[in-house]
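Section 5: illustrative case.
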């Protein structure tokens, strides 16, 4: 087990950080002229923390198990975010990636290393937080767990292929192939939200709430591939700082704002949200007792 862990750290150092240490990357972000870049991380740490506290306060009197499950899913979005953004701020999940020949940023240097700053920790945020967004949206729409878990699988695939696009250094064509593959998975998720879950929300009685949530989520999510394509990982029209702030603003919209809009509805525990005393039991009609 220890050898596997050591191997993982060696791979991280060799592939993701390209020789730059966590300390060097931390000093690069929080020193010199990169104050705005650092603030794009710190702001999200603060907002994620406030969101966790806000959900805990708003949901303190929830009694229905289904309402509680939705609230927990919403809270876990920010739990992942505060952890991941702390990794970015500390330099742990930052790296310097040398772009392949033909890339506009090929030949650039960062923190004394050949390559550009890669915020690969953001992909960890999206990989682990977007499934909780989809769980909350799916439950509010009244969808079944098969469809909810299917969208979660596709969003994990979308984020991991996006990470592959960001880290591929062998070929510019392969970088864009990974991006195209990630976009295909993205459109599957968007289809489920806009078509299937919209219809299910209308039947469930949560259409008004779901309309607001899907607008904030889908419009915000379209911004991510656009920023990737225009940012330093794509055609490098936007700087690393501008790209980071773009991602941070989109995270604020699709995570924290969506969370509070949903929580305001959930805490009222309307009939369209509640599931009854036996919700979550593996046997219908059986209510698990407290240990």
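Designed sequence:
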């Amino acid at each position: 087990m220890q050898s596997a862990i050591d191997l993982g750290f060696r791979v991280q150092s060799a592939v993701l950080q390209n020789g730059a240490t966590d300390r060097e990357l931390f000093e690069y972000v929080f020193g010199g002229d990169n104050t705005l870049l650092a603030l794009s991380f710190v702001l999200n740490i603060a907002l994620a923390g406030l969101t966790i506290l806000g959900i805990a306060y708003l949901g303190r009197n929830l009694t229905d198990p289904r309402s509680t499950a939705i609230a927990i899913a919403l809270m876990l979005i920010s739990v992942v975010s505060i952890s991941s953004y702390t990794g970015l701020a500390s330099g742990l999940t930052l790296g310097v990636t040398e772009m392949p020949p033909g890339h506009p940023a090929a030949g650039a240097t960062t923190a004394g290393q050949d390559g550009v700053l890669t915020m690969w920790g953001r992909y960890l945020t999206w990989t682990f937080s977007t499934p909780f967004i989809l769980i909350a949206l799916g439950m509010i729409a009244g969808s079944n767990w098969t469809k909810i878990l299917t969208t979660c699988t596709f969003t994990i695939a979308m984020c991991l292929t996006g990470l592959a696009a960001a880290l591929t250094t062998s070929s510019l064509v392969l970088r864009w192939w990974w991006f195209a593959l990630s976009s295909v998975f993205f459109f599957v998720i968007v289809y489920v939200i806009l078509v299937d879950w919209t219809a299910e929300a209308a039947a469930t009685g949560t259409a008004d709430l779901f309309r607001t949530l899907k607008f904030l989520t889908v419009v915000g999510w379209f911004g991510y591939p656009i920023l990737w394509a225009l940012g330093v990982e794509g055609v490098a029209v936007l700087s690393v700082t501008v790209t980071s702030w773009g991602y941070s603003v989109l995270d604020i919209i699709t995570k924290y704002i969506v969370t509070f809009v949903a929580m305001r509805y959930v805490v009222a525990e309307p009939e369209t949200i509640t599931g009854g005393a036996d919700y979550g039991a593996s046997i219908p009609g059986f209510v698990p007792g407290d240990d």
